[in-house]
Amino acid sequence: MDHAQFRLVIPSQTRYLNLVTGLAKRAALVAGMDDATAAKVSIAVDEAVTNVILHAYHGEGEHSVELEVRFTEVALEIHILHTGQGIRQDQVVLPDPKEYIKHPRKGGLGLLLMSRFMDEVSFKEDGGSGRNECCLIKKIG
């Protein structure tokens, strides 16, 4: 497969999440993943975009969230771009699942799911453009 890619831009509102998750699931299937794997990709993307809407944009609905889906020979890459408050890689703390069950709290579980369901999760801040990115990668096969 050549390096196909496409983009979807949605308003920063949770009511559009099903468009994003549907796209992520279909993209995973097109990349050759099975249904169970495609569902996990969809959940990870749902978590990432929800984080952008609720945390980066603080629930403000007049912004936009951009998804860039890239197919390579070895992986499906989903880049989630926004101009909200960024998160640096060194700020990412994954909760220990056993501790989380003992002391449940709001937040943190989405990052854990993302890291479990995807092969790579990274965050980048671009100070120059003011754009921030969450990159989710799922290897094929």
TrEMBL record:
<dbReference type="InterPro" id="IPR050267">
    <property type="entry name" value="Anti-sigma-factor_SerPK"/>
</dbReference>
<dbReference type="InterPro" id="IPR003594">
    <property type="entry name" value="HATPase_dom"/>
</dbReference>
<keyword id="KW-0723">Serine/threonine-protein kinase</keyword>
<dbReference type="InterPro" id="IPR036890">
    <property type="entry name" value="HATPase_C_sf"/>
</dbReference>
<dbReference type="Pfam" id="PF13581">
    <property type="entry name" value="HATPase_c_2"/>
</dbReference>
<keyword id="KW-0808">Transferase</keyword>
<protein>
    <recommendedName>
        <fullName>Histidine kinase/HSP90-like ATPase domain-containing protein</fullName>
    </recommendedName>
</protein>
<keyword id="KW-0418">Kinase</keyword>
<feature type="domain" description="Histidine kinase/HSP90-like ATPase">
    <location>
        <begin position="11"/>
        <end position="129"/>
    </location>
</feature>
